[in-house]
Amino acid sequence: MKYYSSTTTIENPLGGKAPPSSVALFGSKTEIGYRPRALFAVSSLGLGHATRTLVVIREYLRRDYEITVISAGNALAFLRLELEGEDSVEFREMTDYPPLERGTGWRLYWYLFVDLLHTWRLIRNEHHEVQAIAGNYDFIFSDGRYGFHSLCAPSFILSHQIAFVPPNGLRETAWLTENVNVAALRKFDMLFIPDYFGPSLNLAGHLAHSPALHRCPHRYIGILSSYRHLDLEQDIDFLFVISGYLLEHKESFVRDLLEQAGSLTGIKVFVLGNAGGEESAYGRYIRDDLQIYSVASGNLRQELFNRAKVIISRAGYTTVMDLVEHGKRALLIPTPNQTEQEYLASYLGSQNYYVSRTQQTGLNLGLAMKACEQTRLFEPPWKTDESLRRITEGIEELMHRHFISIIVPAHNEEAEIKATLLCLLAQRYPSDRFEIVVVENGSSDATMNIATRVAHETGRIRVMQSELGVSRAKNAGLANLAAESEWVIFCDADTKLGQHFLQHLNTWLNRHGDDSLSVGTTSVRPESGNSCYARAWFAVYNYIHRLTRSSFSIQIARTQIARGVRFREDLNFAEDLMFIQECRRYGRFFFVPTDQVSTATRRFDSCGYLRQSLRWMYEALLPLRFKANRKYDVIR
Q: Does residue 536 lie within any of the structural domains?
């Protein structure tokens, strides 16, 4: 048995743009390195989604992630301002859902029906779009956007709103909306709830504490605030933070507050929360003791909040978390017809944490400010730093990078081996968490020379030789795997793994890979996928392999079990069937649906699909004593 390896570099044999992988081929050399990437999808229905997600984005920038932010409207504009100058962040705009509960009277219910249908279509469309790009990311983090989950990447959603509060005429449907919402949240790997667990000390009441949650993987992580603690004098007596997405109510609301603020003693500052607006529209209200900003971002936003003694704001949940983080007293004024804000304001007001007033009854700002002095501060069990640790810990648990070994037995594969190895090198997976072992066995062509050359030029492949026979080759590979190997893939030399395959497999194993799994396979598609005839046959093969617990051109096994079972070396065909059968003594068979595995159709082109299928069926049913030491005709 011989062994080959090296650490030199390779010119890009494919040309063109390099694949985004742990071994990126471009220019004149192979660059070895892996930089993680994350996708953040942020709802634009109010700035709260953007401000609370901002702290999570910054944490992963600190961890040297490349970040893609998808949002719309004011939320996207705000995030651009806050993350300006960050070279590792790219921004994309995608249509967000319509604001629910707009209009009044019968129009409220009509708009609600229309907007729910439109929202459902948008969720379906955004899910379809994210599927095409999900494999490029190590994880997906959504705040309020339900379509951003994928089979290819761990997917997380941040939401405090598990139960909905329907409008008065629809209160009897609350159970239905709650269960539909939980069904949507279950599509994510983990729901992060920004609140505290328990009936006596929480901020969201029954919005975030629902009996339906037992059907959904979730974790209470505590409050999230993007406001840092600054050692500044509290010289702003009243800070008005007027962000919100129901614009038809906002204009009159702001003007009423500005009129009444003039009678308050002290410094007043208004932040309108509209990244595209201008404070000049309210210029006549500006005085020495009253300042107006259309939007406050960066250091200014932090300073204003830290300097404020009392906050007057909409009853958005993110605002509530900011208040708790910094121990601020506040007047909460819910947006009319926005049932979530109305519930929060009423719930927190009943606990005497904050003063709650409604817009419709006529607001007396002076009396409300006196009432603020009598409120008690909410004492959180922990604050943002600990909440952030809980989020990152939860993400890391579902991003565990299994060490995966790939064994490629190769016999007379000079036409295929180079392309197969380049596909393996292009895997978007940390280079220190997978290995490639090629085992050449008895070739009479240039297979060994080609594999050895690629190994020398990349330094990422080990090439070995064994005696003739696919079982001997696979066993030789098993005997030389890294000690830390957790899972081993046996991959035919004419089978190509897409660049996201290991990422997809890793995600699947993290979701399903408990200790009961032992061996499995994946769906496989024809490499020349333009033929409907070939695709139809392969669809049948995939169904049969799943049903019969068998495999075709790829097998995946837990390394510890595979090392103990090994392949019978007197079998030259159907060796995988016996191997799977023995491995199943120690755990369950599994099937991974994926579009990342393709194989050559040369044997079918040569023999015909029906003939080859009948031959496989005959070989599978043949008694073991007739299979042993029988020669297998190799088609090349």
A: yes
CA 210 to mean position of chain CA atoms: 24
Cα(583)–Cα(577) distance, integer angstroms: 10
pLDDT of residue 198: 83
If DSSP codes are grouped into helix, strand and coil, which group holds residue 553?
coil
User: What whole-number distance in Å separates Cα of residue 496 and Cα of residue 473?
Assistant: 19
Instruction: List the domain range (segments joined by +) for residue 199.
Output: 37-225+392-396
- Report the pLDDT value the prediction gives residue 29, as an integer from 0 to 100: 36
Residues 587/561, Cβ–Cβ less than 8 Å: yes
Residue with tokens 């990437």: 37
Residues 182 and 287 placed together within one structural domain of the fold: no
| Alpha-carbon gap, residue 384 to 390, rounded angstroms | 10
Rounded CA-CA distance 287/253 in Å is 19
The two tokens of residue 323 are 């208040």
pLDDT tens per residue, range 485-540: 999 999 999 999 999 999 999 999 998 877 899 999 999 999 876 688 889 999 99
CA distances from 621 to 172, 500, 544, 567 (A): 60, 35, 14, 18
Q: Which one-letter amino acid corresponds to residue 575?
A: E
d(CA 53, CA 296): 17
Dihedral of alpha carbons 386, 390, 395, 401, sign: positive
φ and ψ of 251, to 5 deg = -60, -55
Same-domain status, 105 and 165: yes
Distance from C-alpha of 486 to C-alpha of 572, rounded to nearest angstrom:
26
pLDDT in tens, 157-167: 999 989 877 65
Tell me what the mean pLDDT of segment 538-553 comes to.
92
Beta strand ranges found along 183-280 (DSSP E): 190-193, 218-220, 236-241, 268-271
Rounded CA separation 421/496 (Å): 8
Judge whether 516 and 588 are in contact, CB under 8 Å: yes
